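Entry for the shared binder. Reason: the reviewer on the internal report wants the predicted structure included alongside the sequence.
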Amino acid sequence: MMRKILFYDTTLRDGSQAEGISLSSHDKVMIAKRLDQFGIHYIEGGWPGSNPKDMEFFHMIKKVGIKRSKITAFGSTRRAHIKVKEDPQVKALLEAGTKVVTIFGKSWDMHVTEVFKTALKENLLMIYETVAFLKDRKIEVIYDAEHFFDGFKANPEYALKTLQQAAKAGANNLTLCDTNGGTLPHEIRHAILRVKRAVKTPLGIHCHNDAELAVANSVQAVGEGCALVQGTVNGYGERCGNANLVSIIPDLQFKMGFKCFSPAKLKELTALSHYVAEVCNMPLVNNQPFTGRSAFAHKGGVHINAMVKNAKTYEHVEPKAIGNYRRYLVSELGGKTNIMIKAKELEMHFQKDSAETKKILTEIQRLEHEGYQFEAAEASFELLVQKLLGKFKPFFKIEDISVRTENIGKGVPRSIADVKITARGAEHFESAEGDGPVNALDSALRKALAKTYPVIEQIRLTDYKVRVVNSEAGTAAKVRVFIEFQDKPHSLSKDSKVNGTNPGNRKSGKNRCQDKDQTWTTVGVHENIIEASWKALVEAIEYKLMKV
């Protein structure tokens, strides 16, 4: 019978140490609730002795009613030459009131002498006495052997002694930490084989990703007998991040045969990944394995042709198994097969060698030569097909537009847009002020359309990206603008006004936890950034009206 693997999530502590992440106590509670729903075995809430916010979380989470997970407090061994019961941070661990506590101690002799500034023998006492103190109070103790693998390389005998002290004191699990993230898989294996001869306590693994091996090292450790895997959702963490549980879980279940979670729960993995990214206000990397938007996206014509015949040709797992979905990207590389597949998705049926397919492919190739990309702007592709086939009926006509920006270099710039349109025979003129030209144009256009099409008020711009197409042209280069809208504000999203004069200053809002039908993206290309933005903006509005 395959042994059970326990998962320990440290997104709320280690993950929050990532650059760009700042979680409030409320944010942490929301993530903890979602992790509990998924069934993660341990949720590390934070270090109650380090800051008031973490202690507040432990007080708040008690009122939530966590059902499946064990909430864990994190802290250090006692300080050198002080009694455990007198150490303030150990007292704080008890005040957190959790049934599980994770204690980290030093395994590397260099850290003991140069960071703790104490004797190696005193460090062994610090480990033993802290673990024993907590065990006497009927607390489950996970001992994190910090820098274990570096310590093992430098002084294997001493590193093993630190584990033996924790085991002797009654630790329930000894987690081996690759804190610097520079250990290789074969070194992980060698060290664990030695550890298993020295102690009989169940082992865990905690890896950082500085050599991009955190997932590989974690999987290797489980193969060598570790029963507990620590990591974070989406690999968030300090420097290059922690081991990504979103990859480790399906690797162990699909590749190694461990039954980590039920098939129904695994189908929630993509939603979990996107949800945590949303709360952390971090863009989920498109090509993240398993849960990224591009994880099952196919672009090359040869690949797509093979995929139509057998999905196993270019997919190592079924996307639905982890809650993701397959996408065929429209581009000049995709060929006629791709056009046919995308048309079928849009409920348009014509043959691979039909005149319609040839016409669409020719136009896509022409536009991509100009700088367009449709693989990330499927709404623009659908509009293009509808227009080429003569099936699109315009909802409004642009009569006149203008935009100006004032006070540049004199404090806060101010952009004002004027838009005149004709919709259903009536002419509308509106002006609007915005944080930047694009924001002003967006507001003016929607004000002009709102009386005729009230549904416009139910959408909002959530993402704006600019890419230079031909940088060698200098300031005359073409720019490619992607604009994303969604039907209604997500309850967790920040207000997303756009400054078209300097779009690089704001974070991407891409990959929010949304159903794919609620979010759509369009693209515009031009030498003038405002013109490119306007093209994408108009298409985004047209797409919404077409779908109503």
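Summary line for the report: Residues 529-547 form the longest helix (19 residues).
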